[in-house]
Amino acid sequence: MDELRDWLGPRPAIYLTAAVAVLSVATGLINVGAQSISGPLSAIVPPTIQRTAGFTGALTGFLMLGSAYGLRHRLRSAWFSTMILLPVTALQGLVQTNVASLPLIGLSILSMPTVLVSYRRFDRTIDLSTAQLAALAALVGTLSYGTIGTYTLRDSFEGVQTLTDALYYTIVTASTVGYGDAIPSGSDGVRLFALSVVLLGTASFALALGSLIGPLIQARLAAALGTMTRSQLDQLEDHVLVLGYGDLTEPILEELQATVNFIVVTPDEETATMLGNRDINAIVGDPSDEEPLQRAGIERARAVLVATNDDAQDALGILTASQLNPDARIVAAATDRENIEKLRRAGAHSVISPAVIGGHLLVQSAMGGMGMEAIADRLLEVEDESEI
Fold this sequence. Notes:
Elements: H1 2-8, H2 10-32, H3 47-72, H4 76-96, H5 102-117, H6 130-152, E1 157-158, H7 163-174, E2 183-184, H8 188-224, H9 230-234, E3 240-243, H10 249-257, E4 262-266, H11 269-277, E5 282-284, H12 290-295, E6 303-306, H13 311-324, E7 329-333, H14 340-346, E8 350-352, H15 354-366, H16 372-387
Parallel strand pairs: 3-4, 3-6, 4-5, 6-7, 7-8
Antiparallel strand pairs: 1-2
Helix pairs in contact: 2-3, 2-4, 2-5, 3-4, 4-5, 6-7, 6-8, 7-8
């Protein structure tokens, strides 16, 4: 069952999409520079179209890399773009008619079912900040302004004849590359237009760059504080949530580190930083609130562990977790023995009392010792009696 869940999860779709992207770029570059073309359709497809397909295949590969990045963030739009681009990469590989294109064709076709069945795993919408939207609008607006203006004034530009030439001039000018093969040669008005493209392009590129660097800086700060980034949280799958941190939590974390992926939700920033320094995933938030539990991917969690020194706070966390993911198994440790039934009524599937366990161990040790199997049977009898 766990193996089936892994195959239906997001990771295979992400990895396959990234692999197709790399193959598409590599195959496109090989076919662009190939001196001879050999393949099943080499006699039908003209060499010019084959090399054009190689160039566009490389571009499609870069677009696929963008889709793979979007899939890492579980974006629904990235899933749609991937399902559109996979048939395109397969068709481009077929048109390139090179033996080197066969792996691209096969992997693109094989990836489609895997991405298709993982549809429900990618349910996030694009969450762009105002600054990112402004940067995107400024960049698109500047490129449109420069391209349309340059094409309209193409008679006053050397080296500009087509719309592609106009786009080329706009990009190399706005990015301050300026190869000098397309320059304004007309009146002062044309030069002023070219100057406006430089100013607007520089500003829009700088704004776009800032909107990309900002989240990276935020991610580094999050790592320094021992918290997890949005991308890391999106990758959690079939993991264990540990709500809160206390004296009872420490041995649990030591056990979990050797077995499964887990994340700790704690309201204390210092605790989160300390756990982060020990390479333990942690986020800052109230374990009894819905928002931090949703950020921690509770809807994808396999189990929830609650073991702090505050049974009342644990009960609130259990109640919230059981409402957000009724299928997850919730296990709690009761500090006070009289709170066992309260935690169970809050939604915990199993409640363990360290005090009860310690008492049995002490008694058996004082009476000359008892086998571990007998102690386990006795503990199970106590738990069964509490359920009746």
